[in-house]
Specification:
five-stranded antiparallel sheet; single chain; 29% strand; globular; 20% helix
């Protein structure tokens, strides 16, 4: 059984960021069910390198992410691998909420008037965290939405699955390189809830065991094998 090195809880409608060392596992837990965790990833040694959603999907021939998938940078390296997933389907294409989205659905509640009950949006949350590292609007990229399931209907429309709610579901991200993680717990842009959904997420850190030769993520497809080799070369050169 893995020993938890550190844990904390981020409330709904909030944002945070931290640097994760390679060889660590970040476990994310949707405690109540119905959370959305918007995430972006950057290389802290070169902030121009960041998560690339199109490459992540096309090289693994998938529309959604789950156990066995890897999250790629725009340099063909792997930030992290999904080693465990009890939710099973995470959105990769719908982006994040913005001020207009929140206002049209739930109205705007400012911090000055409502304090922690404000209606925060994903885009501004990302920008607040990115500013801590000298990044801004030009550095935003297509993000990942954990704990949100989106599928297409027969006409090709994207549909948010509001029934895919599992309290206590978790995702383990094993980091293959040092990574700056930026995230928020603001609602998914397609969430049809009548009231602003404010769901907390707990995060925990563990030491990851060495990657085995028969590792699921590494061997899921030939592209992943090459991605691991490319990442290992980068790590060796920047040790």
């Amino acid at each position: 059984m893995m020993k938890c090195l550190y844990e904390d809880r981020i409330p709904g409608g909030a944002h945070w960021s931290f640097r994760v060392r390679r060889g660590k596992i970040l476990r994310l837990i949707d405690e109540e069910g119905g959370a959305n965790l918007g995430m972006l990833f950057y290389n802290p040694q070169n902030l121009l390198e960041r998560y690339n959603a199109p490459d992540t999907l096309k090289c693994q021939h998938t529309f959604r992410l789950t156990r066995g998938h890897c999250l790629y940078s725009d340099m063909g390296r792997i930030f992290c691998s999904i080693t465990e997933d009890s939710f099973g389907w995470h959105d990769t294409v719908c982006g994040t909420s913005h001020r207009q989205t929140i206002e049209s659905k739930w109205g705007l509640k400012s911090y000055q008037d409502y304090r922690n009950d404000r209606t925060q949006n994903g885009r501004d949350s990302f920008l607040v965290e990115l500013a801590k590292y000298g990044l801004g609007k030009k550095d935003l990229a297509a993000n990942l939405n954990l704990f949100s399931k989106v599928h297409t209907d027969r006409e090709g429309n994207l549909r948010f699955d509001e029934h895919a709610v599992r309290a206590g579901s978790h995702v383990d991200l094993r980091f293959e390189m040092d990574t700056l993680v930026v995230f928020h717990t603001c609602p998914h842009p397609l969430n049809p809830a009548a009231e602003y959904p404010r769901r907390a997420v707990r995060y925990q850190f563990f030491d990851a065991p060495p990657v085995a030769e028969d590792d699921l993520c590494k061997n899921a497809c030939p592209e992943n094998g090459r991605g691991f080799t490319n990442t290992a070369l980068y790590n060796d050169l920047h040790a």
